[in-house]
Amino acid sequence: MIETTHLLDVDDLTAEDLETVLDRAAAIKAGEDDTDLDRQTLAMVFEKPSTRTRTSFETAMTRLGGHAIFLGPDDIHLGSGEPVKDTARALAGYADAIMARLFDHADAEELAAYSDVPVINGLTDDAHPCQTLADLLTVRERFGGFDDVTVAWVGDGNNVAQSFVLGAALADLDLVVATPPEYGIDDDVLDRAADLGSAPRLVDDPADAVDGADVVYTDVWVSMGEEDEREEKLRAFQGYQVNADLLAGSDAAVMHCLPAHRGEEITDDVVESDRSIVWQQAENRLHAQAGLLVELLA
Ligand code: CP
Ligand code: NVA
User: Fold this and answer.
1) Helix runs in the chain, H state only
2) Fewer beta carbons within 10 Å, N or C terminal of the chain?
């Protein structure tokens, strides 16, 4: 079993925990693990929309013999002023675990502080650790491990990038990050990655990052909640699109956490190309989270 109670970001896991979760996920995916969660319930709190996170967690709980309850912004009192700490204690009285997709990362921390059942971060403005679990499972499947694999992150130093930085450090995966200087990875995340043993190499030019990379990974330029910054961000990210020109001369696979905004951070032809492993990556959300749920709840 893993040591952590909650998963608020990837560095709540040790390197051993991460390997345990990925191994469990792979076994479940291969049909070699039939751990039964025996009617346990996952409360799923969403302040933001979701296709993959909601559906993959709910499906994982169903397949594991448990149950998930979807609690959207109009369904519970969190959105109309009930304090996070009250929601935490009430939900923890019913459910065996809470998964939450929230704006403010501090709210996820408060939820965990007041919950005596595991709290899983299903994305905040700062982090998306469940995405990283699926990403690392996908890289491991494709390359058989993390040794000698280099990933280039191209685009925004956002929640998905930040958790991936921590995951790469834990997995000892080489990572190069190309962002506009004003949209880089937070210093705090870089420090935490360094504490884990390896901070990414930071560059400004996407071509420098892609050179020699085995995987090129990108995400939207305008994340949920940043709609007011849209024009400013679109201007700042010109030159950071993952397209055929950037990938010319590279045989890198392409990852994207989805949803993709074709024509902005990535082109349609790249998403639909043979080098794209985005559907494998999306499916792996299900298996990675099943592995995590078993490790936290079984
Ligand atoms: N990648 C991801 O978290 O997708 P959703 O927003 O659809 O859940
Ligand atoms: N960075 C994106 C990820 C969506 C899964 C966002 O926060 O909107």
Assistant:
1) 15-29, 52-63, 84-94, 105-114, 129-143, 159-171, 187-196, 206-210, 230-236, 244-247, 268-271, 278-297
2) N
**Please, are residues 163 and 120 in contact by the beta-carbon 8 Å criterion?**
no
Q: In this structure, which ligand is nearest to the CA of 54?
A: 1
60 contacts 290 by C-beta, under 8 angstroms:
yes
Catalytic residue among 6, 54, 101, 140: 101
At residue 280, the pLDDT reads: 98
Q: Is 219 in the pocket of ligand 2 (CB under 6 A)?
A: yes
241 pocket-lining for ligand 1 (C-beta < 6 Å): no
pLDDT tens-digit readout, 119-145: 999 999 999 999 999 999 999 999 999
Q: Are 58 and 291 in contact (CB under 8 A)?
A: no
- Residue to substitute in 159, 183, 264, 285 for testing ligand 2 pocket (most ligand atoms within 8 angstroms of CB): 159
pTM of this structure:
0.98
Residue 132: strand, helix, or coil: helix
